[in-house]
Amino acid sequence: MSTMASLKTPTLKNPSLSLTSKSRLPSAFSATSLNNLRFSRSQPQRRVLIITASAASFSNKPTVLVAEKLGEAGLTLLKQFANVDCSYNLSPEELCTKISLCDALIVRSGTKVNREVFESSGGRLKVVGRAGVGIDNVDLAAATEHGCLVVNAPTANTVAAAEHGIALLAAMARNVAQADASVKAEKWQRNKYVGVSLVGKTLAILGFGKVGSEVARRAKGLGMHVIAHDPYAPADRARAIGVELVSFEEAIATADFISLHMPLTPATSKMLNDETFARMKKGVRIVNVARGGVIDEEALVRALDAGIVAQAALDVFTEEPPQQDSKLVQHERVTVTPHLGASTIEAQEGVAIEIAEAVVGALKGELAATAVNAPMVPAEVLTELKPYVELAEKLGRLAVQLVAGGSGVQNVKVSYASSRAPDDLDTRLLRAMITKGIIEPITSVFVNLVNADYTAKQRGLRITEERILLDGLSENPLESIQVQIANVESKFASAISETGEIKVEGRVKDGIPHLTKVGSFGVDVSLEGSIILCRQVDQPGMIGKVGSILGEENVNVNFMSVGRIAPRKQAVMAIGVDEQPSKESLKRIGDVPAIEEFVFLKL
Ligand SMILES: NC(=O)C1=CN([C@@H]2O[C@H](COP(=O)(O)OP(=O)(O)OC[C@H]3O[C@@H](n4cnc5c(N)ncnc54)[C@H](O)[C@@H]3O)[C@@H](O)[C@H]2O)C=CC1
Ligand SMILES: O=C(O)C(=O)COP(=O)(O)O
Questions:
Q1: Is residue 47 part of a domain?
Q2: Which one of 70, 106, 109, 354 would you pick to mutate in the ligand 2 pocket, going by the greatest count of ligand atoms within 8 A of its CB?
Q3: Which residue among 311, 336, 361 closes a domain?
Q4: pLDDT of residue 21
Q5: Are residues 166 and 145 in the same domain?
């Protein structure tokens, strides 16, 4: 590595590096990333960047494909921001054809959003909104690989699902559906439909999350003894509603009724099977408003026929709709509904609003609070981290532009100096933005919070993080962020630190990100436009000379700062500019005799 490479280094070979990468993006919204700060302030340079990137499409509204019925309130919200295409009952082929014209897709449980959908989108699809909880119909791995955010609506249908669970429980215990069909068939079978009581019976809730705990609360009101199994549920939440958390074994062995409320995952798939049915209390009754796949349906038929399971009430099925001749559906002791758990007027309005807000927010570039395949960061933390998110991306962007052509970037070290305890500072967001800043200027890949780690890994980029714990208490989550790129040469030799890495450091001042160190030189320039870094022999009049070259071309200088080793020795001058200087002006700056090297960096 040469630490004194190329005195009088020429200007950046391709000063429009980051523009070029953006202009390859298929949609204007790709350019917004998950960080909308660049649109929020009046920063001429950045506005130019976006407009140049995709002038035509930026003026257009994004297109949202709503592939399943969504409440009116949600549609109204969407229409204020986007072109909304409500196309229900699309075949998989039709969905794949349409998707390349869409920036967002909203589905419920009836649409399979598989890998083909993401591949067919040609990179345009930026958000999939699941208007409900379960995301087992969305291929999350494929979404993440394609940088597509998946958001859901996790809370608005909780009560509806819990109420349906209770409805099924009571209807099953008293044979309501069977008796209803019998009366309508002009029979009057009072002895046949004698039921069982709920009071005093043990109900085991499997999956003590949002729905499970609401079912528990209601079942307690019915006088049931409620136990629950959930490996991840906090015991105090269970205790608070008088529910005992027990092992899976104890739950299934002691329950008179079992109600399922876990997500469908590889771990929960066919959790109830021949083996587990065999360990249940004879005559157990089962309710499933979670997902059909958590039960081995053929095993359930066997358990019903063997009398192990007395009755089942099912809202969900492995295949939806199930086959007409399904033994399970047709079984006399099975009550079925067509996936109605979330289907109340109230829940559907709530879900529609929840998902519309999440999708619009994501399209605007805001960080989603209900992201499924990206870190979920609480809103208050997001607000606090916002300027640091911008700082992180810009430091990454600056650091990579300092790398000399031909040196592959592989090892990046990020140091966060903070007085917060490590648990109090979530750096995933910052790491993702540094990754974005590093990768985007040198590739055509679009990086966001969703695919940052995946993209870094794909490209062999290793990002290690270090926490520097500062003494004392500070209101700021972070004091500074430092980005170092190891084992590379720099086109601006002064950016190489004493230890041989390219080093840039920054901090947030009054809500604005600042560059505070380049190599071993302290500087102070706000990261708001682009930057010219010059190394010079420290002497009076330098700021004036460079300033007047830029002034002649009407390039507005927003900040200048000089960091020197010692008076009249070497110094690094950082100049923040609002407009991009012409090549001629940059050359004239390079020709100033005292300037030993310089570089122009786009933010
Ligand atoms: N039928 C319908 O229309 C509706 C169905 N649902 C389904 O209900 C289920 C629960 O939804 P929410 O309560 O909102 O989700 P949630 O995420 O709040 O709760 C799920 C709970 O399951 C637990 N869990 C995970 N693995 C488990 C395992 N191996 N054993 C036991 N528990 C386990 C989790 O720790 C979590 O506490 C989901 O599958 C969802 O898709 C939700 C709404 C409507
Ligand atoms: O939210 C869920 O997980 C549900 O199962 C509800 O599904 P739906 O939106 O009614 O197709």
A1: no
A2: 109
A3: 336
A4: 26
A5: no
What's the CA gap between 98 and 94, in Å, rounded? 6
SS3 per residue for 6-47: CCCCCCCCCCCHHHHHHHCCCCHHHHHCCCCHHHHCCCHHHH
Residues 465 and 539 in one domain: no
Reply yes or no on whether 320 is catalytic.
yes
> Listing from the earlier edge strand, what are the strands of the sheet with 284-288?
244-245, 225-229, 202-206, 257-260, 284-288, 309-314, 334-336
277 & 395 share domain: no
Q: Is there a catalytic annotation at residue 47?
A: no
Ligand 2 probe mutation, 107, 128, 133, most atoms within 8 A of CB: 133
**CATH of residue 127:** 3.40.50.720
For residue 406, the model assigns a pLDDT of 63
Return the exposure string of 151-188: e unless at least 16 CB atoms fall within 10 Å of the residue's CB, then b. bbbbebbbbbbbbbbbbbbbbbbbbbbbbeebeeeeee
If one counts the domains in the chain, the total is 4
As for ligand 2, residues whose beta carbon falls within 6 Å of it are 108-110, 131-134, 157, 339, 341-343
Looking at residue 39, its pLDDT comes to: 26
Same domain, 105 and 163: no
pLDDT (0 to 100) of residue 503: 97
Same domain flag for 134 and 269: no
Provide the residue range defining the domain that includes 278: 157-336
Same domain, 488 and 390: yes
- Report residues of the chain scoring pLDDT below 70: 1-59, 367, 376-377, 406-407, 444, 564-568
User: Do 217 and 330 share a domain, yes or no?
Assistant: yes
Protein residue closest via CA to atom 9 of ligand 2: 108
Q: Is ligand 1 within 6 A of the CB of residue 317?
A: no
Single pTM value for the model: 0.73
Structure tokens at 338: 């067509």
Which atom of ligand 2 sits closest to the CA of residue 343?
Answer: 10
Does 372 reside within a domain? no
Q: pLDDT tens for residues 101-117?
A: 999 999 999 999 999 99
Q: Check residue 441 and give its pLDDT.
A: 84
